[in-house]
Amino acid sequence: MMTEQLLLLQLIAVAACLVMGGCYLFVRPTGESAIDGFAIFFLIQYGPHTLWTSSFHRLNDYVSEQDTAQFLIGMSIAYMSIAVAILVTSRFRFDALAERSFPIQTPSTWILLAVSLVYIVPFLATQGPTLPVTGEYVRSFLGQSSFEYSEVRRELFAGSLYEKLGSLTRQTSTAILFSFIFSRIIARPSSRWTLIPCACALFVLCAMQMNKFPFVYYFGLVVLAYLTYQSQRGNSTATTKKILALGVGGIISVIILMALYQFQYDRSASDVQNVIAYRLFYCTSDALRMWYDYFPHRQDFLGFAGIPITAKIFGLPYVNPTVAVPESLATGVLTSYQCGFIGSGYAGYGLFGVAIYSYIAATIAMLMANFQRAFRHDAGATCFLSVLTLNSFFLTTRELHTAMLSGGTISVLLLFIAIHVFYPRKSRTDE
User: Fold this and answer.
1) Nearest Cα residue to 176 out of 420, 415, 376
2) Burial track 197-220 (b if 16+ CB lie within 10 A, e otherwise)
3) Phi and psi at residue 51, in whole multiples of 5°?
4) What are 100's strand-pairing partners?
C-alpha cells in the first residue's frame, strides 16, 4: 500500500512542478534575470528527476518510506508556494524608480585597473607577503598539498581575517567589480590585454577558496556579461549568439569542474563524471531527505533556535541543522549538508515552514527580476544585477537567512538601491 501511495505522491509532485514551471514561463521578464537563475538552479537540484530514488542517491538506506512520503509532500508544497509567489510578485513594477538612470556607468579601462589594484591591497595585507592561503589553495587544486581537502577548507585557515574578508565580499563587491571588468572587455575588446590579467589577479587573490564553486561562479559572470551585451544590442543575431554562449558556457563549466576534480583527487574520468553528476543533480535533494528523517523524530523543530540572531535574542541554544543532520549519520565527521530554503524551512517549522520559506525565496527572486526589467538598458546597473542573477543560486542551496546575507542577495540589492537613491542623477528625459 505504501508503494502505491508513494507513486501517487510522486505524480502529485510532478503535477505541482509543472504548475510552477508554467507560472514561471508565463511571467518571466524578457532577457536574463534573477528569476531565470532561481528557476534553473532550483530545477537542477529539485526537479522531477529527484522525486524518484535511483542509484545516484547515496543516502537511501537512511530514509524510510514514511520519510520519503513526507519529502514528496514537502516538494509539492514548495512547488506550489513558488508558483503562487511568482504570480503575485510579478505584478510589482519598479518603472517609476527607473525614471532616473542608474548613476554608475561602466568605467574606463584605466579606472577599472586602478580600482582593482587598490581593492586587492587589503586581501594582500591580511595574508602577508608570502601569500600562504593562496599558495595552499593552488597546491591543493593541483593535488600537491600535504593537507587533506577538509583540513584546508574547514580548519587550516578557518577564522582568519583573510577568510572572513573573502567570505564577506566574494559574492558581493568582488563579483560586482569582476562583472564591470568583463563588461568592459566585451564592449571594448582592445582592453583585454590590460583587464584580463587584472581579472585573473582579482579572482585568485580575492575570490578563490577551497572549493570548486567560485571557478564556475566567476565564469558564469563572464557568460552573463556577454549575454547582457547581446541583449542590449537587440539585433536578430543576438538570440542565436546567446543560445550558443549558454551551450558553450555550460560545457566549459563542466570541463572546469572535471579538471579540478581530476587534479585534486587523481580519480578516473568515469568516477569524476559520476561525482559531478551527483553533485549537480542529486546531492542537495538527497541530503534533504535526511531532514525528514531527523525532524521531528530525533529533534523537535527548531523554530527561533535555527537562526543565530533569533536564537540569541530569545536566549536559545543555536542549532545548525546543516551540521547536526550529517553529525547524526557519522559522529565526528566535519561536513555539512546544504539544502537551501526548503531544508531551513522544514527544520524550523515543519511543512508550514517549507511553504513560508519557499514563498519568501521565490518572492525575493521575482523582485530582483523586476528590478532587472526596469533597469535592463543601463549598462552599469546590469553589472550589479547580473550578480543578483547568479546569487539566486544561494537561495536554493543555503539556509534562507544565510543566503540573504552572506549569499549576496539582499546586500547587493540594498547596495544597488542605495546608490541609485542617494547618488544625484537627472531623469532620463533631462539627459
Assistant:
1) 415
2) ebbeebbebbbbbbebebbbbbeb
3) -80, -15
4) 427
CA-nearest of 391, 392, 416 to 170 is 391
Cis peptide preceding 296, ω within 30 of 0: yes
- pLDDT per residue, tens digit, the chain (431 aa), is 478 889 999 999 999 999 999 999 999 887 778 899 899 999 999 999 999 887 777 777 778 889 999 999 999 999 999 999 999 999 888 888 888 888 888 888 999 999 999 999 999 999 988 888 898 888 877 777 777 766 766 677 777 898 889 888 999 999 999 999 999 998 899 998 999 999 999 999 999 887 788 888 998 898 888 887 777 666 545 566 666 766 777 777 777 777 766 665 666 666 777 778 888 889 899 889 989 989 998 899 999 999 988 999 999 999 999 888 888 876 666 677 888 899 999 999 999 999 999 999 999 999 889 888 888 778 778 888 888 888 888 888 888 888 877 667 788 888 888 888 887 665 655 55
Phi-psi region of 295 (alpha: psi -120 to 50; beta: other; left: phi over 0): beta
pTM (2 d.p.):
0.85
Question: Which residues have C-beta within 8 Å of that of residue 46, sequence separation ≥ 6?
Answer: 75, 78, 284, 285, 288, 342, 396
Can you tell me which residue has the cell 544625484? 424
CA distances from 56 to 60, 64, 211, 283, 320 (A): 10, 17, 22, 9, 26
The beta-carbon contacts of 39-43 under 8 Å, at least 24 apart in sequence, are: 41/392, 41/393, 41/395, 41/396, 41/397, 42/82, 42/396, 43/17
Q: Which three cell numbers stand for residue 419?
A: 546608490
Which residue, 270, 275, 278, is CA-closest to 56?
278
Residues β-bridged to residue 427: 100
**Residue 96: HSE in the Cβ half-sphere, 13 Å Cα cutoff:** 2
The span from the CA of 38 to the CA of 41, in Å, is 5
